[in-house]
Amino acid sequence: MVGVTSVIGADVDRAAAQPETPPPIAEFGALPDAMIFYVAHGPSDSCGPGCADWIAAEGTIQFDTFKRLIAILDRQSGRKLPVVINSRGEANLNVAVSMGRILRDRGFDTSVGRTLVEACRGKQDGECLALKRSGGALEAKLDASRTVCETSCLLMLAGGAHRSLPPDTKVELVGMEIRNRLAPNVSAEHRSGLTTYYGEQVRLYLREMGVDAGLIDIVDRNWADRRRPTEVPPAAWLKLGLVTSGAL
Q: Do 85 and 149 contact (CB within 8 A), yes or no?
């Protein structure tokens, strides 16, 4: 994976249109809409039976996102709050895999949904972002309706010790592309080899997490044939290991 050195590596990116660009997270070198993490507090049973607090993970998974994940997990003083994912945009899938491993190693549960912070009502994106970065739990509601979990979301979700998806979630997987953000002109031959290598690494990761690695074969086939996403219906989630339990 590309870092700040001159050694050629690869970022495995989700191929999709970029959404409207939110403000940067105000960290040196961070890209716009890089994923942030904060603790949210809502009504009783917001994030499951007896669960009123969760870690919101929202934004695009970038090259350094794992550092912010480790930082917030370290601040929890042993609390195992569920991590609720709202991943969007072109994402670094290598980092999504790394974060999934971190979550599994530490025993955190995962789900997906949109965290709606009460104090953000009527505020500009920059003001809201500053609130989320201020530390401490924020009063919020969890919106689990009509959520979308794409490839980066799935890879992060897979790391959860227990995994759940709201029943009307759209699990929509897209193809992977090899990109080097520091040296974009990778040869076709090198790109092909890297695609095979990273595809196998993703398969290995999914098997280790208890998820059916055949999902990647389906994604690759559909993407090559029609360049369109593969939707995984709710009836297949448990069989494929995407979830270990039902809805939030």
A: yes
